[in-house]
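Exam revision sheet. Question 4 asks you to relate a sequence to its structure. Input first:
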Amino acid sequence: MGMSRRQHHLTARSPKICIVASCGGHLTEALALSETYDAFEHFFVVNDKIALPKQMEGKTHFIAHSERDLRLVVNLVEAVRILRNECPSLILTTGAGPAVPFALFAKLFRIPVIYVEISAQVTSPSLTGRIMYYLADHFFFQWKPLQRFFPRGTYGGSLL
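Answer key, structure tokens:
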């Protein structure tokens, strides 16, 4: 009996990484982490159709730009579709909007999630960071003052 796509992603030798980020600074910081995922199969999920950097061409999924309206429901459905079709073994996200729907379904599908709070958050956490702190398997922040908000998180220093 053959393995399902879901079982295959759990037993594959080389990880497949899903990088989820909003456009702009969130994506810039996700791309700054490319040294950690370039050696592995990976794909991107972004919430705006943008001019893609070369490393994203041909491996990017686009979802609606929405955090608080009916398009959020569309994004939830899209998150399930993308995760089922791509079968990633890990999700890496820098936020904002698309991070939470993907993290919710990653939990359901038992896919580990790594979240990196963006460098713009120096003394107080972002809304996405406050939510992702409870959803992420590994939570990183870039400024030491955030330690008081994220005691189980890891200070990783600045990406940029």
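Marking note for examiners. Residues 5-112 form a domain with the Rossmann fold fold (CATH 3.40.50.2000).
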